[in-house]
Backbone:
């Protein structure tokens, strides 16, 4: 019954949303590059009984009903359809409903399709898009928004057009025809959803070398001029219109120091969107639109960014924890590579009061391999969050500071992690847990350690000391939070060039062996230990056929979660862990 009501509520929303005002883009008879076979109609309109193409030659804007209280910003919504039709009417209306409720003035663009003859596939849509932005800007005072607070959100081909509008406003798509064309046509932010036609191996269709795309470059139609705006990208990991288009555009924005977000969803194709009604069982792609609104809030486009709140204060107590047990990692006298300057390693079991899953999450902190704190903000809030979800958590203190005597910075910590995984696996069954559902999670140096544990479990970090070491130390998933030291331009320090240059490679200690597991990456876009650490790891996993999730957070630095404003991605970040495990089935 609830699902039926949900569906009917969407129909009601759509009916209300579509009752706005339609405005022609061009003066009659002055449409540039007019071609008589093109129409400006949604697929719903084109399939309606009695449809007459001759009545739909004028591209237009549809203004939605104004918000009850405007926040001073406007969103231009752009449908996809391969530049052959305008097919995303339902999603456009849903986006308008959500954004209008947040105070955005919303307007949608219906541009000319199908693809023009004798011109680039996007040309007539680009002309309509630039004209649309000018028309929207001209309406700012009348409709109550700032002419320098205009964003665009588009799907597929509409996403390609959104990127064009966001990167190439200083390149005229058409010659001026009237006074309106004296207005600038740049947008102030962009939200491209599964962008098509972004790479040279897929300029008019799906990418031909989807997984590797070693030689594929960004389309040169994207000029990345001085008006290029901040963006938030969304893409499915198995999209035939490759998500590498989004990672490449993101990389270029970083070179230009333009704030951006990147959200990549494991196993999802073109049109990745799921069902937001799933609630507790939801995945990242079910709740993708929440990431859109969090991007907008973090950038404060709506003027409503709140004060930051301390994460430890939000999760102050172990109220959801039942049993607790602490134990050493190594038998007395058998710890490998003992060094007097290092702390004693141990692990702690945190059992939930109500066990809802047999999965186990191992968590440890960062600290530049100089120290680590299992009760600090990188560990304690997440263990409390997962205990509330009904999951068992094991926390670990590994040996720090960095070992001496020529050992690599991470070696003793890696030994401790492999031993901890074996201990957890050996005890899981007796505790009613699944020994084959173990994940690891760490932040910063702990993120680097996570990548060691996830990519190199077939490499032994120490010689066996007892029968426990016969047990596998591979894991089923990994969560890397702003991992440090992952690229060769920042192997021991912050990334010198932001990890953007093509010759910054993944560090050689990551084996990416056959036991490498799916991963979730979360990284601040403004982190000096660059988000390209996470992006390039994600790309390598995809080349191996290992589908993973990735989220970068606009404007956020290292330790993004310590303090964060409500309704931003750095406030809700722990939800991405639960969503990832829901999608991969680890929570069942």
Residues:
């Amino acid at each position: 019954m609830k699902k039926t009501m949900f569906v009917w509520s969407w129909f009601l929303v759509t009916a209300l949303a579509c009752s706005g005002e339609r405005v022609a883009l061009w003066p009659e008879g002055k449409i540039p590059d007019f071609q008589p076979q093109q129409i400006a109609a949604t697929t719903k309109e084109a399939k309606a009984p009695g449809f007459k193409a001759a009545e739909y030659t004028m591209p237009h804007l549809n203004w939605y009903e104004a918000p009850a209280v405007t926040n001073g910003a406007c969103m231009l919504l752009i449908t996809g359809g391969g530049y052959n039709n305008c097919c995303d009417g339902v999603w456009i209306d849903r986006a308008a409903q959500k954004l209008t409720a947040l105070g955005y003035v919303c307007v949608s663009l219906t541009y000319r399709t199908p693809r023009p003859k004798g011109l680039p596939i996007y040309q007539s849509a680009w002309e309509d898009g630039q004209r649309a932005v000018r028309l929207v800007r001209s309406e700012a005072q009348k409709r109550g928004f700032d002419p320098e607070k205009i964003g665009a959100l588009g799907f597929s081909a509409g996403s390609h057009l959104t990127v064009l509008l966001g990167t190439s406003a200083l390149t005229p798509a058409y010659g001026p025809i009237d006074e309106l064309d004296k207005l600038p046509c740049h947008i102030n932010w962009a939200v491209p959803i599964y962008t098509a036609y972004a790479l040279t191996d897929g300029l008019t269709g799906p990418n031909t070398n989807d997984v590797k795309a070693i030689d594929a470059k960004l389309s040169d139609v994207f000029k990345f001029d001085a008006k290029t705006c901040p963006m938030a990208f969304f893409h499915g990991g198995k999209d035939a219109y490759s998500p590498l288009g989004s990672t490449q555009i993101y990389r270029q924005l970083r070179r230009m120091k333009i704030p951006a977000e990147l959200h990549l969803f494991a196993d999802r194709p073109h049109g990745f969107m799921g069902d937001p009604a799933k609630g507790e069982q939801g995945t990242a792609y079910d709740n993708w639109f929440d990431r859109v609104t969090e991007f907008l809030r973090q950038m404060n486009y709506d003027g409503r960014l709140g004060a930051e709140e301390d994460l430890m204060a939000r999760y102050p107590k172990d109220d959801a924890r039942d049993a607790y047990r602490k134990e050493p990692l190594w038998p007395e006298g058998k710890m490998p590579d003992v060094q007097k300057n290092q702390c004693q390693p141990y692990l702690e079991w945190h059992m939930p009061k109500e066990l809802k899953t047999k999965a186990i999450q191992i968590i440890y902190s960062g600290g530049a391999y100089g120290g680590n704190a299992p009760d600090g903000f990188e560990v304690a809030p997440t263990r409390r969050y997962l205990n509330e979800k009904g999951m068992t958590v094991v926390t670990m203190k590994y040996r720090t500071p960095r070992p001496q005597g020529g050992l690599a910075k991470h070696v003793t910590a890696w030994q401790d992690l492999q031993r901890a995984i074996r201990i957890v696996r050996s005890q899981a069954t007796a505790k009613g847990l699944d020994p084959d559902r173990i994940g690891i999670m760490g932040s910063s140096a702990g993120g680097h350690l996570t990548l060691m544990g996830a990519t190199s479990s077939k490499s032994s970090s120490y010689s066996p000391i007892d029968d426990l070491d016969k047990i596998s130390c591979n894991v089923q998933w990994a969560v890397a939070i702003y991992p440090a030291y992952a690229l060769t331009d920042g192997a021991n320090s912050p990334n010198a060039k932001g990890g953007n240059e093509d010759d910054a490679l993944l560090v050689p200690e990551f084996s990416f062996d056959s036991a490498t597991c799916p991963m979730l990456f979360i990284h601040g876009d403004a982190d000096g230990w660059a988000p390209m650490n996470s992006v390039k790891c994600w790309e390598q996993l995809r080349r191996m056929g290992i589908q993973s999730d990735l989220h970068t957070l606009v404007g956020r630095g290292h330790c993004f979660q310590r303090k964060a404003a409500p309704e931003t991605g750095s406030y809700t970040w722990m939800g991405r862990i639960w969503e990832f495990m829901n999608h991969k089935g680890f929570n069942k």
Residues 314-518 form a domain with the Rossmann fold fold (CATH 3.40.50.1820). DSSP finds 15 helices and 18 strands in the chain.
